[in-house]
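TL;DR need structure tokens for one chain.
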Amino acid sequence: MKDKTIFITGGNDGIGLSTALLFAEQGANVAIMGRRADKNADALTLIEKTGARGLAIAGDVAQEADVARAVGEVVHTFGALHFAFNNAGIGDAIPLAEMTVEDFDQVMNVNLRGIWLCVKYEMPHILAAGGGAVVNTGSSASGLGLAKMSHYCASKHGLVGLTKALALEFAGANVSVNLLCPGMTDDTGIMANAKQTSPDVISALAEKVPMGHLAKPEQMAATVYFLCSDAARYITGQAIYVDGGLTVG
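>> reply
TL;DR here they are.
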């Protein structure tokens, strides 16, 4: 990955930050995007401590202008874009009777529309670099239903179809497009929120994990790294469940 460039949304904590640090340690140029400038600055400090070149951009993936500006800034700074990890996502537990149209639209705009926007602006530059890899972040909820999270499940199921369609569209252009589907992962914003708002659901799911424990962000980062590597070049259009066996049964 030396001297290659990766752009990571939701890159200032959790899975995104772990992935940023792994790529940085392997010599890549690492650009992150997140909504909070303070967290971006802290993440950038960690990235640059590895000796890698880093870039942090404040923005919202649900806003087309922010996405276009961010991708342009990445290419202007590093000269090319080889990999994209479209990882930004939100979700909370809301019973259907209490869920508003605004609640639904917000989750869909970030989790589904936001990833579509990212790929739309990233892909021309990845093609110009001669190919590369796109990894989108789904969830164990890409293949499951979760009570009180209909908006979240709809968005994550939608990413399966989006990823498959994009994989086919660019299969002949040396670009792989895959979907990382994490199980319950410690040290992520969504997990912290879920523990607070719906501990009963989280506890019930945790008991069903065959491997008996939550994942670590570093395990997700390793999967993203593999999917971007030459070793995974023949893998495309796949939803890769890294969930301790949660969705096997």
